[in-house]
């Protein structure tokens, strides 16, 4: 995270507009403290996330007061009660769940499992010369394999920089999430057999052979229905929450920050 520029007494420099929710000012010191919970590459992004979070909190607390909920001491409980009273979120129907299941079969498949072997020609990510050399070496080895002049196991033992060389290059069974993304993405799309192109990763260049591929199968609807119902419920709740905030912001007045929410819960 980028360091926050500071002025006197270690406070962030006042380089952003003041944030108001109705007549209430969200103090810049509070925003600065909140920024530690919103790490970002750019200072402006961290500030905006922190300011938005505090503005939403103040907006909901003010609404809770209008609902005569100030007798609830804990602010989190007060906000939760206000949302409970104000948000009308219907439960997803059986038909909604069935339609989502039918429209998104890939999301409900068992993982594809593959038995993979490789030869790693190692090179550091920032060593351009080594990468060029290893790519050329890899092409020569791959050509020998495709022409039948060499055996995969023997070349793995002789040239691979991976410990799998002791097993002839075998990585065993892999599935999604078990290897680095830049290796996994192309490999999981391959059919059985020797892949005729090199695959590059942060570790160098890979010659890859798929020894076995077991495609994932669509899971039964009843097995994934609870997952679908939870997803749809959370999606509807997020949408209702965004609309609710927009109405509150229009009624109360919010200045200095954009309350447009991402497609994920902001209030925990």
Descriptive tags:
44% helix, disordered N terminus, 8 helices, 268 residues, three-stranded antiparallel β-sheet, alpha+beta, single chain
What does this molecule look like?
It is built from eight helices and eight strands, in the order ββααααβααβαβββαβ. It has helices at 28-34, 43-66, 75-86, 94-103, 128-146, 152-159, 181-187, 221-252; strands at 19-21, 24-26, 113-122, 170-174, 193-194, 199-201, 204-214, 254-255. The strands form two sheets. Strands 3, 4, 5, 6 and 7 form a five-stranded antiparallel β-sheet that branches. It has a three-stranded antiparallel β-sheet with strand order 2-1-8. The protein is elongated. The two termini are 22 Å apart.
How helix-rich are the residues, as a percent range? 40-55%
> Which runs of at least 5 residues are low in confidence (pLDDT < 50)?
1-13, 264-268
Q: Over the alpha carbons, how many angstroms does the gyration radius reach?
A: 28 Å
SS field, number of helical segments: 8
| Helix-strand category | alpha+beta
Strand residues, percent: 5-15%
Mean pLDDT: 89
Number of strands: 8
List the helices and strands and how they pair.
Blueprint: E1 19-21, E2 24-26, H1 28-34, H2 43-66, H3 75-86, H4 94-103, E3 113-122, H5 128-146, H6 152-159, E4 170-174, H7 181-187, E5 193-194, E6 199-201, E7 204-214, H8 221-252, E8 254-255
Antiparallel strand pairs: 1-2, 1-8, 3-4, 3-7, 5-7, 6-7
Helix pairs in contact: 1-2, 2-3, 2-8, 4-8
């Amino acid at each position: 995270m980028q360091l926050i520029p500071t002025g006197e007494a270690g406070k962030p420099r006042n380089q952003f507009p003041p944030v108001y929710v109705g007549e209430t000012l969200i103090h810049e010191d509070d925003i600065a403290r909140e920024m530690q919970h919103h790490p970002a590459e750019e200072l402006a992004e961290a500030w905006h996330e922190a300011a938005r979070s505090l503005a939403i909190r103040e907006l909901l607390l003010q609404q809770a007061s209008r609902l005569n909920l100030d007798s609830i001491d804990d602010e989190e409980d007060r906000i939760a009660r206000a949302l409970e009273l104000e948000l009308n979120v219907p439960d997803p129907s059986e038909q909604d769940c069935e339609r989502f299941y039918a429209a998104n079969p890939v999301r409900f498949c068992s993982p594809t499992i593959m038995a993979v072997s490789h030869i790693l020609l190692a090179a550091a990510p920032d060593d351009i010369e080594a990468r060029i050399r290893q790519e050329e070496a890899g092409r020569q080895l791959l050509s020998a394999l495709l022409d039948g002049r060499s055996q995969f196991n023997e070349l793995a033992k002789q040239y691979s920089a991976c410990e799998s060389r002791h097993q002839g290059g075998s990585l065993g069974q892999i599935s999604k999430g078990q290897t680095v993304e830049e290796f996994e993405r192309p490999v999981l799309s391959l059919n059985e057999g020797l892949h005729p192109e090199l695959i590059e990763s942060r570790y160098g260049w890979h010659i890859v052979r798929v020894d076995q591929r077991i495609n994932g199968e669509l899971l039964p609807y009843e097995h994934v229905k609870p997952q679908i119902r939870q997803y749809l419920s959370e999606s509807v709740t997020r949408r209702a929450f965004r609309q609710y905030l927009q109405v509150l912001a229009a009624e109360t007045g919010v200045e200095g920050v954009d309350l447009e929410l991402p497609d994920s819960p902001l209030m925990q």
